[in-house]
Design goal:
Blueprint: E1 31-33, H1 34-38, H2 42-53, E2 57-61, H3 66-85, H4 90-94, E3 109-112, E4 125-130, H5 131-135, H6 152-177, E5 197-203, E6 217-220, E7 226-231, E8 236-239, E9 258-260, E10 267-272, H7 274-279, E11 289-291, E12 303-310, H8 338-357
Parallel strand pairs: 1-2
Antiparallel strand pairs: 2-10, 3-4, 4-5, 5-12, 6-11, 7-10, 7-12, 8-9, 8-11
Amino acid sequence: MATVTTTEIDTSSTFFPEPFPEGLPVINLARISLAKLLDGDEKEASTLFEVCKDKGFCYLDLRTHAKGVRLTKQAEQMHQAAKKFFGAPIEEKRKFKTRPPETGLLDRGYRETGCDAEGNPNKMEMVNIAQSDFFSGEEPDYQLPPFLAPYEDLFKSIMRDANEIHNVILTILEKQLQIPPGTFTSIHKLTQNSGDFVRVLNYPAPKDGIPLKDPPTPPHRDAVSVALLFTWQGGLQITNAPNEYKRLDTELDPEDSWFYVPPIPGHVIMNLGDAMHIMTNGLLNSGKHRVVTPPGPQGRHQRLSVLLVARPWADAKLRTVDSPLVRPGQYLDQDLTAREWGREKVLRIIGLADKAKSGKN
């Protein structure tokens, strides 16, 4: 096992400008060791499986394996790069176009969900870098826009390393479900056209210091298989309210059902998405979550996050896996590919974002 010292993780105010406030409703998530997973620790793998059946969220401890520390350092570099590239003129950022909604993909382009009177984003803005643009071979001449081009090598390296860790998790789920090796990993390859991406998000601090009334990222479940979120301030919340997939994401959950997920140095927040919920006929959980203004003094600071996701290969059918632990039958009413299912899901997500953009705050 490749062990490292935890002193390599930066806990300075560069990344953690204020401590997370005390006395707030916080959810108790399991902490899973990447080093133990890579070392074949059966108890840790079993704990991960239980997490995926329950909340679908956990902390993945990256501190004690070189692969985890490398991914953490890449995320820190992305955090620092984001301070620069989000500072580009909004006219330049908007030239980096998203894909048409009918593609079912949110893996490329710039998007903001609201601007102030001066035209500056004041809710949330994001940059999406598509994994397929660099690794599928389908766009050999692809180039990033000028405001992102200096960071191409960083985007490539973090996507490559994240895909490896995504597949560590998927391999363990294959074993725990007692399904053939490759059932999941064969449709989550780096070179496949899947809609995988790295997403860098910026939540500007409210100018008046008052938290936004509406969450800048509304309640939703991710249209992915596995997500890894690096964040250095509070704001992410998950709900303990009923989480049936077929409820509309726009249905409101009681405010007292939402709990903060505080960032922990050296840990990435891992969650499963709807694709895993569907392919296990509801056994594995895709947790609903949202992002609100960081609490207390943290809300005075810009909040940056780095999201790394794995999605199934676009042509893969989202069918129930043949596992003795999974009830028979199909979860979806139609026999859809990941691309077809993603189209419906993405249109819903865009609708939620547009609703947030039209709000008062």
